[in-house]
Amino acid sequence: MAEEETEQSIFTPEEAPVKTPESDLLPEENAVEESDENSHSTTTVKFMFAGILFVINGVLCNLILGKESAVGDFSAMIGAFILGFRIFRTAIRDLREGLLTTNELVAIAVLATFSSGQYQAAGVVAFFMLLAELIESRTASGAQEAIRRLMKMTPTKARRITPDGKEEELSANELSPGDRIRVRPGDNIPADGEILSGIGSINQANITGESLPVEKSEGDTVFQGTINNDGLLEVRITKVGGETEFGRVRELILQAAQSKTRFEKIVDQYMGFYTPLVLVIGALVWAFSAGEPGALEMVISVFIVASPVAFILATPTAMVAAVATASRLGILIKQVSDIELAARINAFVFDKTGTITTGTLRVSRLAPVDGVKPAELLLATASAEQYSNHPTAKAIMVLAEEAELELTKPVDFNETAGKGVRATIKQTVNDNGEEKETTSEVLVGRAIWLEENEVNGDLKGSVDLDETQGYSLIYVSRDGEFIGWVGMTDEIREEASESLEELRLEGVRRLAIVSGDRTPVAERVAAEVGCEEVKADCFPGEKVDYVETMRAKGYKVAFVGDGVNDAPALKAGDIGIAMGAAGSDIAVNSATIALMNNDLRRLPFLMHLSRMTRTVINQNFIIGLLFVILGLVLATLNLIGPVMAAMLNVLGSLIVVFNSARLVREGEEFEAFEQDDDTAPDERPVIETGELAAESK
């Protein structure tokens, strides 16, 4: 562990870039840390600038006063000492700790050049090696830079509403859950919260990657760091600091930066043998060239070109660029190793509701049995479902509200996951033309569950399969008697078919949809999006079994779900991808990768980005290897001196950095997800709520 910590940098512990702790930093607190880190880098740059000025002055003095000018040599010696001091200090510290790292190679090379009286060469070599290490250090702090960019988007001030209705301005880090704040047009929102009043157009691209503003009103959630384009809002704070969406983004970026990929682990594994091997090569070069002109320069050059800065930069530069690109488009990746794993995914399993479809159900059919009115069926169903958070319950409640039905609170309520709800309610029923108030036990759920509870009536026989093709059905019983069913429809996401086809083009060999819905409904959705494999009537545990069976056949499986109902299946896949994770703690915790919006086109882009990242990493390693081999050949043949060797080392590092930077441009032309037009015509059947209201009265 200690070796890993000292392998990568020639900065001392006090001067090394400071890692941002996983704390609830707000911009003003983070500014102190940013200032400290910048000051360390600035100090290094100042030393480099001062040292190279002395070296350049020495070169100019020798040109003007003569080749062996004492003034020129003295100036170059001071410059070499300034530049080399920091290198020597780090190398000595490593040796005291019993470590042998690449820092020692650089120190030996600079010391040997300095001792031979080649002060100008020693200064130039030290300068270029410091430059290479500075590039490495700045690259390694890329995650912290990403965090700081996010934090700068968060305001430091907020307008809290006092109990007497007045505004008071305070620091954003003084906000607490439950506080009420006022957000004016153009304001950044200082914390996560729920809108109490007002309507605003919110630009939440920083969180979800969506380019279009989202209209939000009373009851909607707003996130820290998003911008209120217009409208005056009153917001109740629900989350602050590290609990906000911004806080979670920061934590995930930190986790990604601190984790290691398979490539990095291989480099770490063999780096401990690398320095002794280079020392042996240097000794062999000295042994075979001792006494020849330039023998010392050859050994020094070997040590310089063998410094593996390009190898060390190969993976982190690519990963930081990939994580930054993904987060810009609302794709949060917890571990950098997940990018590497995503590149090997060859099978996708999708939950249907809320993933392939919008998840916004609408009641399209009420089918009561003879003797039961539609309003009576809806009243019983809505009264039983009002404590449930299931999408079907929400759809029923919307229709009940539109019909202005007066619901009764359940006396007793119990929900069985994946099956249905059981509630004891008071209800007015029609008994031979006479209305009576009675207490009834109402079951709402799947047909098989009602049959398990010995409900009387021909449940499935009441359904015309041809007529209800594409409906999601729930069945209703009262006091053990079947009273009817409710049919619902769900819209397929408009980009679903295109996204699945793009996944095939990215090399995905198997696509499947699993659903707890009926087989006709699931098969209709699968046919419309071009997915040949579908499994319906699944309980949550059966989804897990399906994924595990696919993995047992050798597939690398990604499961895509909503992160709430599908938490077990998300964990069962090689990677779990949660859709629409903004605001969902369960989604982020359960999934490997979280999509902060519901755009399925992010999935093929994720595959493309992960495979592109793997390609760039491989290219970086090849570039680093070629530069080391080329440098060793040129150095052992005495074709380059120490200065050219240092320049060659820096050139290899810069090529690696610029090659990785290509990843940042990925997705620039990616079309952001556009919100559905609420004014678009809805072709689904509509229940006439006026008739229901009249019936209920």
Describe it:
This protein is an alpha+beta fold and 697 residues long. 50% of the residues lie in helices and 17% in strands. The protein has a 7-stranded mixed beta sheet with strand order 10-22-21-20-11-18-19, sandwiched between helices. The chain has a 6-stranded antiparallel beta sheet with strand order 12-17-16-15-14-13. Strand 13 and strand 14 form a beta hairpin. The longest helix has 39 residues, at 27-65. Mean pLDDT is 78; it is low at 1-36 and 671-685.
SSE layout and pairing:
Blueprint lengths: L1 H6 L19 H39 L4 H27 L5 H14 L3 H22 L1 H11 L4 E5 L5 E5 L8 E4 L8 E6 L2 E4 L1 H4 L5 E3 L4 E2 L4 E4 L2 E7 L5 H14 L3 H28 L5 H11 L3 H20 L2 E3 L2 H7 L4 E5 H5 L5 E7 L5 H12 L5 H12 L9 E5 L3 E12 L2 E12 L1 H6 L19 E7 L2 E9 L6 H10 L4 E5 L4 H11 L3 E3 L4 H13 L4 E5 L5 H6 L2 E4 L6 H6 L2 E3 L6 H35 L5 H20 L27 H8 L1
Parallel strand pairs: 11-18, 11-20, 18-19, 20-21, 21-22
Antiparallel strand pairs: 1-2, 3-9, 4-7, 4-9, 5-6, 5-8, 10-22, 12-17, 13-14, 14-15, 15-16, 16-17
Helix pairs in contact: 2-3, 2-5, 3-4, 3-5, 4-5, 4-10, 5-11, 5-23, 6-8, 8-11, 9-10, 10-22, 10-23, 11-22, 11-23, 12-22, 14-15, 14-24, 17-22, 22-23
